[in-house]
Amino acid sequence: MIIETKSGKVEGYPENGMIAFKGIPFAKPPVGELRFKPPVPAESWEGVYKADKYGKRSLQTEEQGYCDEIGFSEDCLNLNIWIPEHEGNKRPVIFYIHGGGHFSGANSDTFFDGPHLIQGREAVMVAPNYRLGALGYLYLKEFLGEEYADSGNCGLLDQLLALKWVHENIEAFGGDKNKVVLMGQSAGAKSAANLMVTPAAKGLFHRAIMQSGATQCIRDTHTATRLAEIILKELGLKKANAGEILSMDGEKIIEAQKRAYQQVNIGHLFGPVLDGRTILETPEDYIQEGKVGDIEVLIGYNRQELYYSDPEKEKTEEEVVQAFRAAYGLNWKLALERYRQFCKTESTAEAFDHVQTEFVYGNATLRLTQLLAANGVKTWSYLWNFTGNKTPYHFTEMPYIFNYSAEESEGKGYDRRDAAYCALMNETWMSFILNGNPENVLLPKWLPCTTSEMGYRMYFEERPHLEQFNLRSYYLKLPMQVIRL
Question: Of 12, 305, 428, 477, which one is least surrounded by beta carbons within 10 A?
Answer without folding.
Answer: 477
